[in-house]
Specification:
8 strands, 1 helix, eight-stranded antiparallel barrel, single chain, about 180 residues, Secreted protein, mainly beta
Amino acid sequence: MRKYFSGLVGAVLLCAALVGFAGPAWADQQTMVGVYTFHQDGLPDAEWSIYPNCVPVVGDLRAEIRDPVACILHVSAFPATVVPSGDAKLTDGLWAYTINTMDGLKCPDGSTAALKEYFQFDSQTLTGTRTISHSQVCGLPATLDKKPFTLTFARPLPLPVTEYPLICEPGGLRRCF
């Protein structure tokens, strides 16, 4: 029994160590603040004004944990004809947002159909992927088109941003306001 128990403890410790070294994928991501140049080959450059809005994670109720998992990046794009705006959340280790436009696809006959755009980007490398898709509509086949893009920091936002706008009470059960 003792041999079995020590082997079990060793296996549990080994698994815990491996999980500890792997670390979460979101640990490398940061919140972004500022105006960035959005560049995708074949399109004119656009600007993304990005500002975060975060909520402190309470953890064990003793201290706030400031973690990008509890943030949303508001992406305001200009011009909107090049790239749409959206609210990005940390998803599978990357910032991501989806835009569904009911009349985003221009059909050959002049009518319109639904279009879906999915943006994923990395705050460390400032690279991302834009996926545009639509179903089989108006005589066009269903399409899934992935295009890489880059972001380049252009300048700070014109107004200061409070990343954590909520203030939480100290100690005990915490109330944020």
